[in-house]
Amino acid sequence: MNAIVSVPLGENGRISPQQCRSRGIGGRNLRAGFLQRVPGMAKADIAERSSALAAKLDQELTRLAQAQFDTPEFKRVFATPLTIERARFFAIQFVHYNVNRRDCWAYVQARAPWEVKRVIWEHEKDELHFDPRGDADHRELMAKEAMALGASAAQVANTGPTPLLQAAQMAFVYLAQNLPWLGALTASHFLERRNNSDLMDGGGFSARWRKRLVDELGVDPKCLISSNVHVAADVDHSNSIWAAISDHVIDEETYNTALRGGEACAVVDRAYRAALAHGMESV
Fold it and tell me: Which residue spans of the chain are classified as CATH 1.20.910.10?
């Protein structure tokens, strides 16, 4: 368990991220140190301000995620006429998307504070090892869904991402490696928030895509084992990671760091959806 370390405040009465990083402070320890050392403010007032900033960020990230569905890139994905071949292409590409997400979460975890590493560890157990909702890890579920749509095991194994999709995946990795850890955490969280049907009017991306497969192609919903799991899993994942983020939003600086991470991810997310639509149109 991390001990609370005494850190001198800067001229603005705050503990800088650089001080936190160099002294290994994070999470509840960071909040405890912050509450103890701000002159002229009661702890209750500081805690209330931190809570208000977290609530503001919560609302802004949800607004930003909801707005994705009204962008030209997302509209293009859902407006592209759907065939079984295009559905198959989409499913195979999402196997690569899942692997890319594992890379990104690993980079985020490497730079996050101890208690956040533990939250990410629990998150990644479902993805990498075993999710009881689907009796498999998530990559296996995505591969099985692609094969349920008619892809062969060889196609799933040997079909790589298109150049546009690969470029977008490289951009996701860049965010995970180069944003401040809180911004990188929020960036990776943003994709799951956008997929959280409890937060998104009209459902998250997976729920909307599943509906297209069922309504337009007549696919049996039971065959969509990955989509079914992700509709549920990303509610849990989004909520657990948000709890870790909100615990670290303690002032305007951390608020802006987190928000910029969400905004940066929204841009790459749009690029990825445009690349998906382009790929489907080519099939």
Answer: 47-281
What predicted TM-score, i.e. pTM, was given to this entire model?
Answer: 0.82
Q: Tell me if 34 sits within 8 A of 250, measured CB to CB.
A: yes
- Residue 4 pLDDT > 60: no
> What gap in Å lies between CA 262 and CA 275, rounded to an integer?
20
d(CA 205, CA 194) in angstroms, rounded, equals 7
Query: What number does CATH give the domain 47-281?
Result: 1.20.910.10
Tokens 């103890």 correspond to: 36
Asked if 238 and 199 touch (Cβ cutoff 8 Å), the reply is yes
Q: What angle do CA 34, 40, 45 make, to 5 degrees?
A: 60
pLDDT recorded at residue 250: 94
Instruction: Determine which helix (DSSP H) or strand (DSSP E) holds 226, and give its type and residue range.
Output: helix 225-246
Average pLDDT over the chain reads: 83
